[in-house]
Write a structure and sequence with these properties.
The protein starts with a helix and ends with a helix. It is globular and about 45 Å long. It is 82% helix and 0% strand. The chain has one domain.
Length: 257
């Protein structure tokens, strides 16, 4: 089974490297459907997986100056308290009950459907942002909305491990249409890592992190991400994103149903 975990981690890592989509949208459904892992354990394990695998990406973007730290702080101002509140609720209701598992899988399905839509329309958002020169931080309403979006992402990520990637980037393109695409990616990553870390540690305290599973996934994913990132220039982005969006949509419908 360890070898299966490594191979699965490699496959997800390669897709992440090819598409730039966060592993949560791919990893959590795979763990639930492919390995029969309980939804709560799949979410908790994937959160720790995301925190570790995305850390290097944040370092690279920060080194290149493609992280808008004021926007990251606004997002975290909303997401971290929301994540902690969601963890408290999960502890109160007991994530191992059938009702809690049903809520998590249904919410995961909805998040996957929304992520599929974000993938389909992301290209249009990127084109609009690239066409604009520079970006503006926005007024008070934009700043407040950023905190609110962060809170929504914080709860969603803690409950499903999905949202900090495709949905976070789509929200930033919408909130800051003049922000360059590279800065959107860097800012989204810089927000995702501390959020996934806090949520992952919270799930660890809840007993919903499988460390053996996590180790196997990490062992396979790191070379997978490296290979996928180098192959990304050779694969048609429109075709790949369309296929991935269709897969996420099917998985989401199945989970909701």
């Amino acid at each position: 089974m360890d070898a299966v975990y490594i191979i699965s981690g490699f496959g997800v890592g390669a897709l992440v490297g090819l598409t730039g989509v966060g592993g949560g949208a791919l990893m959590t459904p795979m763990l639930i459907f492919g390995f029969g892992i309980a939804p709560a354990v799949a979410v908790g394990t994937d959160l720790m997986f995301a925190a570790i695998t995305k850390a290097n990406g944040v370092w690279n973007h920060a080194r290149l100056g493609s992280v808008e730290w004021p926007v990251v702080r606004r997002l975290l101002l909303g997401s971290l308290p929301a994540a902690l509140l969601t963890l408290i609720v999960l502890r109160y209701v007991d994530v191992h009950t059938a009702f809690a598992q049903h809520v998590m899988t249904t919410t995961l399905g909805i998040a996957l459907i929304i992520s599929a839509a974000a993938l389909l329309f992301r290209r249009r958002l990127v084109q609009g942002s690239v066409a604009a020169k520079g970006w503006e931080p926005g007024g008070r309403r934009t700043r407040h909305t950023t905190v609110l979006v962060g809170a929504m992402l914080g709860s969603l990520v803690t409950l499903t491990s999905v949202g900090a990637g495709a949905l976070g980037a789509a929200a930033l393109f919408w909130l800051y249409p003049r922000m360059q695409a590279a800065r959107v990616v860097g800012t989204d990553l810089a927000h995702a890592v501390p959020l996934a870390t806090v949520a992952g540690i919270g799930h660890w305290q809840l007993g919903t992190v499988d460390w053996l599973l996590l180790g196997g996934l990490l062992l396979g994913s790191l070379p997978g991400i490296y290979l996928g990132s180098h192959l990304s220039a050779r694969v048609p982005e429109v075709w790949l994103r369309s296929v991935l969006a269709s897969l996420l949509l099917l998985l989401g419908v199945r989970l909701v149903g």
